[in-house]
Fold these 2 entries.
Entry 1:
Amino acid sequence: MRQGEWATGMEETNGTRRRPTAPPAIDDTDRRILRLLAEDATRTYAELGRRVHLSPPAVHERVRRLKRDGVIRGTVARLDGTAIGCPLLAFIHVETEGRAFTRTLDSFAAIADVEEVHTVAGDAGVVLKVRTRDTGDLERLLARLYEMEGVRAAKSFVVLGTYLERGPHPDIDL
Amino acid sequence: MRQGEWATGMEETNGTRRRPTAPPAIDDTDRRILRLLAEDATRTYAELGRRVHLSPPAVHERVRRLKRDGVIRGTVARLDGTAIGCPLLAFIHVETEGRAFTRTLDSFAAIADVEEVHTVAGDAGVVLKVRTRDTGDLERLLARLYEMEGVRAAKSFVVLGTYLERGPHPDIDL
DNA sequence: TGATTCCTCCATATTTCATTCGGTACGATC
DNA sequence: GATCGTACCGAATGAAATATGGAGGAATCA
């Protein structure tokens, strides 16, 4: 999905046509479909259609468009960290120094235990979300971070309990 | 899925049978299937079977078992935060004080913009992952947090860029 | 106003895939 | 060596995804 398509206005292109492509505005029906799929992507088009008062093909067409436009980035299975042998979750705030920043980020992302890499404003430059087998593995991961170029300091927050974990979802009534 | 089923040993129940139910050990084939589904849950059983050298029904049976055992917790659509009108991601470290802790956590989880709620060891007691429409909404969210019982302080880390975002996944070659 | 275009929807038809159903092979138990 | 439980396969079935053709409505433009 390319960036910058159909920005906001798109008037005055040069010919007579106002908008060469329609702006893929998301309406409430789209939002309902998105929320339902963000909760459970195994729902059938028939069920979705029942809930938003559309026929299965109409829902199918909307979902196809939402995927094409990058609103739906994919469909994934949510796994239980503990069940796959990684019961220890932690956030690591990494303080970085200047150069080779992008390369450093890529190095973080290349580590299997790392689930998320964000750059943040505030005294930590990078926030990592990591999931490891045990404290030993977390310790080894930290040692590995310190060996990487551009890493000045790291501060860990070991998660004791997770009470909510979900993805982006439209806030709309069903 | 109930907790505590088939713990570790399960010997010496009282009768002669050693283990009333088989331990659902996860083997490498399961791990490959899990990894493939964590990447893209729209893959067909036929494709999965091709990749792990099993027939579609055999894969189906394994996936059914993995779901039953809670290893696969669900299948969800990953949405683009920006596309659904929430481009601003932030982590909030909340310092809490004593009583009514669980209730406070539930209150956090009940806020639509909140995606994750974790309790952590370290000076922050709770870490929140939130996604809002703009800085104004983030500010209002913070104000709302401060009004809640048990919230002593909050520190925000506004995300400038996300370079990796995925869920738990088995680290195994395909 | 009327013609045209684009978009969205529906009903139906088709194809693909999930799921079920025997039946076989293998290992463990007794 | 008989029996049980498990995991697998091929074939059959059923359900759902997807393709197709056409109707209706809004906006555009003559």
Entry 2:
Amino acid sequence: MTEDRQISIALPTIRRLPMYVAVLEKALQDGQTHASSSQIAGALGLESIQVRKDLAAVGVVGQAGVGFPVGELIVAIEKSLGWDNASDAFVIGAGHLGTALAGYRGFARYGLNIVALFDSDPAKVGQTVHGKKILPMEKFADLAARLHVRIAILTVPAEAATESAALAAEAGIKALWNFTPTKLAPIDGVIVERVDLAASLAVLSSRLASLVGASGAARPQAADEPESEV
Amino acid sequence: MTEDRQISIALPTIRRLPMYVAVLEKALQDGQTHASSSQIAGALGLESIQVRKDLAAVGVVGQAGVGFPVGELIVAIEKSLGWDNASDAFVIGAGHLGTALAGYRGFARYGLNIVALFDSDPAKVGQTVHGKKILPMEKFADLAARLHVRIAILTVPAEAATESAALAAEAGIKALWNFTPTKLAPIDGVIVERVDLAASLAVLSSRLASLVGASGAARPQAADEPESEV
DNA sequence: TAGATTGTTAATCGATTAACAATC
DNA sequence: TAGATTGTTAATCGATTAACAATC
């Protein structure tokens, strides 16, 4: 049996693991069998000690004087992340963002397979985007159960987030990837991971503001060209 | 002159500030003039002491026995974030994600105004999405300079990320909001904030994997009972 | 005054970084 | 053997949490 103690890897470490996979795959393509912590760190702008600590957390041992086995490492990381066998997912909300995510081919790399989209708008239902059908919300629970879908990607408008999340939980969804600006209240038995654009933009704009503030007064931009209404 | 010491607010605090704004605006609509740290914390699932520490960082003082002044707080937070006067932004890459972001009306709330999109694909150039024009990359530098645009939103394919970032930096862009899966090398004088979907999905799927692993072999769960537990 | 709540100072916790002996 | 690199143990750093006197 495998060691199976993937629980309890520190969250910051888990967030860095995908970067390691990317770097290691490049190394693999270059024909490298081993990569040292300092090589990996260099490629990512990290410290080598942090790489060693992170890799220790996924349970791979390196070879002193040589480095870490690249192939083995990729497999171990993907196992830790649950990326070793693909998971099906439903998208709830076939708006701009939902259809964009449904069309993103890169998710396959992360073991995520978007099966279908759901929307409450009858005008959208029946359409096909990126080869995936938009289905009515009424069919969600039944299909989630029949197809054993455990992941839902939430891309509905902010006002509909809470209700959609409840419906998904009811339907047996175990993990919600929340792209809405709504912070959901905890739901028993459901993992919620939020992509918080406001938080990310807050970091960007506050740094920009302090940069501008440092170099002089904030100044209005020239009213010229298309100001374009939203 | 204003106090102007917005530098050095801790990053975790900055990430939480937008949530406070959301809660405070709701309080304002309910006619509240003041909100206590425990009220705010309760609405967000945080500890009151953390709220007080965060609000202290933006420089607003509360009133013992009463709470914090709601309106003043909103203004102060928005100032800290640079959300007090809107910034224009360009989108680079008019693919699914780029057009989705260009159509998201919620950004106005964060002082972000998407002016136009740019793409290197001649087939896309000339089209209009959500009332915004798709322009050729060749015009980027000139327009960025003329309109004093400092923010670019990067939604090109992974392979084009580095090149596009360099072009943006060349054109005087000061802040890059990077939605590509590529981790950019640091660029002198340019702030880069990345929306790392792989990192977010890693957290989601690893938690899901350990949840399934904990309850026995990886098995299609009964579409019934909550499996509970964090 | 009495109750509620702030803001400060100290304690705790967890992650990052440093140092270096062990090992290939 | 000599050089490179790991993994362990300890030190540092920063953020969160606790306790409580000050204050409205």
